[in-house]
Amino acid sequence: MRAALLALSLCVCSVSAQAQRPAKPYTVTRLADGVYLFSAYFYSSLFIVTSGGVIATDPISPKVAGLYLQAIESLTDKPVRYVIYSHDHTDHIAGGAVFASTAQFIAQENARVNILARGNPAIVTPQITFKDRYELKLGGKEVRLLYFGENHSNSNIAIYLPAEKILMMVDMVYPGSVPFRDLPGTDIRKYLDTLRRLREVDFKILLYGHGPPGAKQWVDRYIAYFDDLIAEARKLRQEMSYEEMVEEHQGSADVRELFDLYVERVAERAVEALRPKYGRWGGYDEWAVMNARRIVLFLIMDG
To answer: Can you tell me the distance from the alpha carbon of 171 to that of 235, in angstroms, rounded to the nearest whole number?
Structure first.
């Protein structure tokens, strides 16, 4: 009887331990033959396994890069030969040292300048740079790196696989969601110019660097979203001006507070006006008003 109870107890403990075992902290999604999307902690990176080695993109942080290497090694014993930086922002490239013993690092030339200017010794400086276009071939795979000019940063590139019709453009188009917060680091006018140029590239799968893949149609949807947001904010600014708000309060409030109130009022009304069309997009309740504030400021200063 005691033996039976002990066996039952061990069985229960074993099942309990399995139930409590944490899930793997990353996922790997196969996109095409030899092409994978690694995702962890709200970041995503593209990697390509070839007969000549691995091409990896954005190593994220040291912790995530360790998981990234683990994921790659679970699929191949080939070393990482190249690491491509999508752009210079630290949150996407800080983990490069994990791959430095086997890989060469590639980035748009402005990224190298920005990285060196920051002087962070933990970040691997790219050895290979280019201005507008770079073609990388390894083990029968081709990757084209395309620079359309400043947008989310002055070094952000499209990472394009022409045979597989896959394109990664980090921090630009978030399939299924409104843009991130107030589009930090982004030049709105140049951002929209880049989106329109992306239309000309022949691809089907779009990668954002945060979250799952989406379809190319999201480029058009983003252009429409911004066109609508700009048009609505412009119309509201014609209906109510900042000067009228100041006159209405007749010196009873700080003009800086009134300016913030004006931006907020236009942004909130624009978001509510567009809710029937875009309200089901992810993040609309949290981030759309931040998008709108940025647009209002853009129209005030550069519209």
So the answer is: 28
Judge if 111 and 240 occupy the same domain. Answer: no
pTM confidence score: 0.90
Instruction: Tell me how far apart the alpha carbons of residues 181 and 293 are, in angstroms, rounded to a whole number.
Output: 10
Q: Return the CATH number at 161.
A: 3.60.15.10
One domain for residues 159 and 278:
no
Which residues, listed in sequence order, are joined to residue 249 by a DSSP beta bridge? Answer: none
CB 130 within 8 A of CB 142: no
Does one domain contain both 201 and 231? no
Rounded CA gap, 97 and 264, in Å? 43
292 touches 233 (CB < 8 A):
yes
168 lies in which domain range? 27-215
pLDDT average per 10 residues of sequence, the chain (303 residues): 46 44 86 98 98 98 98 98 98 98 98 98 97 98 98 97 98 97 94 97 98 97 98 96 82 82 96 98 98 97 84
Q: Which residues contact 290 (CB under 8 A, 6 or more apart)?
A: 181, 182
